[in-house]
Amino acid sequence: MRVISSAYPDARIYIADAAYKHVSYDELLRWLKEDSLDQMRWVDNIWDCDNFAVESYCRAHKVVGNLVYGECWGDTPTGYHAFCIAYCDGKIKIIEPQNDDTNDLKKSDYKPDFIKI
User: Fold this and answer.
1) With b meaning 16 or more CB within 10 Å and e meaning fewer, what string describes 38-52?
2) CA end-to-end distance (rounded Å), the chain
3) Secondary element (H or E) of residue 22
4) 73-96 pLDDT, tens per residue?
5) Of 3, 46, 54, 116, which sits 20 to 30 A from 69 (CA to CA)?
6) What domain count does the chain have?
7) Model-level pTM?
């Protein structure tokens, strides 16, 4: 988890378990494609970014296993927002759980102040 704490030194990082599974980026993409969370309807202040991030975190750990996948809250290009991160193939990946977007999301554009892995 040193990679995550080095990338986001100002974030409060909560690590729940002693060991985690590393998965490839391709495996992460395969799981995101198979998972149906991105098909759920976004509802402002009822089922929005924080709910999607929590649900994605729970599903990832239940289905894929105890992988390095976290729920985050922080500043993003679209404002303060909840999103997810994963550590795959030696890199931190940003995931927008509402639409499963991981493409071209720059780690430096996302500044979490809370990370739960």
Assistant:
1) beeeeeeeeeebebb
2) 9
3) none
4) 999 999 999 999 999 999 999 999
5) 46
6) 1
7) 0.92
